[in-house]
Each structure stands twice: as C-alpha cells, then as structure tokens.
Design brief:
This protein is an alpha+beta fold and 187 residues long. It is built from 7 helices and 6 strands.
C-alpha cells in the first residue's frame, strides 16, 4: 500500500511540475511528460506550438521552490499537497487529505474537521507557515472544511464541487469570508 502511494506521489510530482493544476493527470501522461524533451522550460510539447507556462504553473513552481527551503516535516507536507493538485479526489475529503499528509511525516491527526480544529496550536492568519491547517465554516460552525496552507497566500484542499485536489487563494472572497481558524501542529 505504501509503495503504491509513493509511486503515485512521484508520478504526480512530475506531472504537477510540468503541467500545473486544473486537470487530473493519468499515470501514462505523467510518464510521457517526465522525459526531458517535454520540459516546458526547454521547448514546447510536440504538436502544441510554442506556449508559455500559465500563471498557475508559475505559482506551483514558486511554491515548490519556497517549499524546498522549509524544514522537514513542513517541506514534505507542502510538496506532497502540491503534487496532488489537479488530481481526482476519489476516496478523499478535506480532512482525510490533511490526515494522510500529516501521517506521511509521522504526525497523527484526528479524522474529522471538528476534531482537527480542536487539536493543534491556534495561529493568526498573518503568522501562518506552510504546512499549517486552515479551517473554514461554509455551512456549519465551528468549521466544516480544512486545507493545508502552502505559502504565498494559497492553500491546498479537496474541493467537493470540483471533486479534485485544488490550490486556492486565501484572499478569494468565499474563502476569506469563511476562514474561521488556523492550527499549527509542529514547529
């Protein structure tokens, strides 16, 4: 099970690094894009003409560079979360994503949003660090949604409407209005 997850993670890292977020990437696509000749920074993909990376691709690359200087386990959580961006969320919800990412670095998290909110150390939004959890109340209080802060005002979460792992801005009106708390689980 762990080997299968690691293989998927590596394929997603390659795919996200080359394509950005916005669509699910199959393992076949990731393998095809992992060859140097398809690297966006060197040349356009065959048959696609000259295209420049999208703003979301630049954001993901910048976040990945920022994450590379983070101390462990924050770096692993943020890199793993970003690697999943655009992937199908089949079998995942927001709290399970957070729980799985924290488990990958040996940090136990409760399963539900409510229990996760009760855990950890409260953090003001201005003091967020990559890897902290951000909580939202869209329908019920105290919270009904959670994401993983990735830095640069963005977080990674499972979007129930898109049924995918998404990267979103905390400043986006819906999220800014619904943000109710943040928690830190390690330094």
């Amino acid at each position: 099970m762990m080997a299968r997850w690691c293989a998927r993670f590596l394929l997603l890292c390659v795919a996200v690094g080359l394509t950005g977020c916005g669509k699910a990437i199959t393992a076949r696509d990731a393998r095809a894009r992992s060859h140097p000749e398809s690297d966006l920074s060197r040349s356009p993909l065959p048959g696609r003409g000259a295209t420049s990376p999208s703003p979301s691709q630049h954001l993901l690359r910048d976040l990945a560079l920022d994450a590379s200087v983070l101390p462990q386990p924050r770096r692993q959580i943020v890199e793993s979360a970003l690697a999943m961006a655009g992937a199908s969320a089949r079998g995942l919800d927001c709290s399970k994503l957070a729980q799985d990412l924290y488990a990958s670095v040996g940090e136990g998290l409760p399963r539900t949003v409510g229990k996760q909110l009760e855990s950890g150390i409260p953090v003001d939004v201005e003091h967020l660090r990559p890897g902290d959890l951000v909580f939202f109340a869209f329908e019920k209080r105290p919270a009904d949604h959670v994401g993983i802060f990735a830095g640069q005002d963005v977080f990674v979460h499972v979007s129930s409407s898109a049924r995918a792992v998404r990267v979103e801005s905390l400043s986006k009106r819906a999220f800014a209005q619904a943000h109710v708390a943040s928690r830190r689980f390690f330094d």
